[in-house]
Amino acid sequence: MKLFRKAIVIIHGFTGNLYDNEYLMNYLEDELLFDVYAETLPGHNKDRFSDATAEDWKNSVDNLINRLINNGYSTIYVIGHSMGGVLAGYLASRYKEVKKVVFINAAYDYINIKQNKEDIKEKSLSKYGHLWQKLIRISPGMINEFRKLVDEGKGFLKDVHCEALILRSMEDAIIPFETGDFIYNSLSSNEKYLTNIKNATHRLISGDKKEIASEYIRLFLKGGRKWKKSIKKEI
Question: Whole-prediction pTM value?
Answer without folding.
Answer: 0.89
